[in-house]
Amino acid sequence: MLGLRWLASIELRSRAEYYNRAYVNLWLFYLLLITCVPFSTIVVGRHASLAPAVWLYAGHLLLIALVSMRMMALTPHLEAGDHLRAKQMGAMLLVVSALLTIGLSFVDLRIAMWGLARNFVQPVIARWGRGRIIAD
Fold first, then answer.
1. Which residues lie below 8 Å from residue 48, measured CB to CB, with a gap of 6+?
2. pTM for this one?
3. Mind giving me the DSSP string for 6-57?
4. What contacts 106, CB < 8 A, 6 or more positions away?
5. Cα 66 from chain centroid (whole Å)
């Protein structure tokens, strides 16, 4: 998870030489959130049978996705295209799956974490889709 989020943030291309203070503050907050992922992962790993642990983990991922989306919106002179669209869709998928996980935790805590499973296969699906388009 850490590697995927880090790669998503550095793969965005911008031609700007200057970033405003709001963007820099968001970037530092994003890095703080990424740094805290091992903590929330340990909590949910040890206490997966408790709803607050699932909420902490899913809420943490939700916050990462929302900050990432906001940073994309604030990035000056961002190069548009399929690459950017893929990053936006990845962040949106993380928002949806985190909310799904939180919702499922109210129904059945044993299946709640399956709401996040789609995030781990998303890169494979995206690669398969690109390969299929190239082959056609």
1. 54, 109, 113
2. 0.75
3. HHHHHS--B--S---HHHHHHHHHHHHHHHTHHHHHHHHHH-TTSHHHHHHH
4. 51
5. 8
Tally the residues of the chain: 136
Q: What is the spatial distance between Cα 106 and Cα 93, in angstroms, rounded to a whole number?
A: 20
Domain boundaries of the chain, sorted by first residue: 2-135
Q: What is the DSSP letter of 76?
A: T
Amino acid at 70: R
Indicate if the pLDDT at residue 42 is higher than 50.
yes
Residue 54's closest CA among 45, 65, 63, 64? Answer: 45
For the segment 60-92, what is each residue's pLDDT rounded down to a tens digit? 999 999 998 888 887 766 667 666 777 788 888
Q: In the structure encoding, which two tokens stand for residue 45, read together? A: 């790993």
Half-sphere exposure of 98 (CA within 13 A, CB side): 18
Contact 61, 91 (CB under 8 A): no
